[in-house]
Design brief:
10 helices, about 210 residues, globular, mainly alpha, single chain
């Protein structure tokens, strides 16, 4: 059995573990009882949820992102790189059959995403406020993701680096369910509850007009 095969099996097992762990979190969150809002609905809950998952996520809808647009854009590019890295992992057995232009495009996006992650990681060390707020998990999660994206950017154009990419991905996939990366699950429920609340309270129209 070759190093490629061994690391590929380890990555596959790690992916299944991560999917199972996140699925369990999702199931437990779905079963939790939510608070009962006994106020008289003033508007549509559906409208609030629609706003929360669309316009409400735009940069101009939140003061924190309006005042820090560069940081917001860096985060967008970083997360785009994460989706590309995940796609590379899932499609890695068939990389040789993908056109060179697509592979190089994925390599560039993964690399730029990694750079954005590294910049964010450095800011957590150098900026006083971020340094105070950051936990060891914050640092480790960002660095792990950035390393995975760097290895993905190399592996997607040179299959000789796939074992290194598989090892890095395996470490991240096993660590992710216990780390801040769990926000990929919790952000959905947070936006959902927010949308329900502002929909019932009838304040969506005011938010939309304020940010128009």
């Amino acid at each position: 059995m070759t190093l490629f095969t061994i690391t590929q099996w380890i990555a596959s097992a790690s992916l299944l573990f991560s999917i199972a762990a996140f699925s369990g979190m999702w199931w437990r969150m779905q079963r939790r009882a939510s608070g009962v809002d006994r106020s008289v609905p003033k508007d549509s809950v559906a409208r609030g949820i629609r706003y929360a998952f669309t316009t409400g996520m735009a940069s101009w809808a939140k003061e924190s992102t309006r005042l820090h647009m560069i940081g917001y854009l860096r985060g967008v590019v970083f997360h785009l790189g994460i989706f590309v890295g995940l796609a590379v992992l899932l499609l890695s057995p068939w990389l040789d059959s993908i056109s060179d232009s697509v592979r190089w495009g994925a390599a560039v996006l993964a690399f730029v995403g990694a750079v954005m992650g590294i910049i964010g990681a450095i800011q957590r060390i150098t900026e006083r406020n971020l340094r105070i707020l950051s936990t060891p998990d914050d640092h480790l999660s960002v660095w792990l993701v950035s390393i995975v994206l760097l290895s993905a950017s190399v592996a997607v154009v040179s299959s000789e680096w796939l074992p290194a990419f598989y090892v890095a991905s395996s470490v991240l996939l096993v660590y992710a369910p216990a780390s801040k990366i769990r926000h990929c699950i919790f952000v959905y429920f947070g936006r959902l509850f927010y949308g329900i609340h502002i929909g019932r309270r009838g304040i969506v129209r005011g938010l939309e007009e304020h940010h128009a």
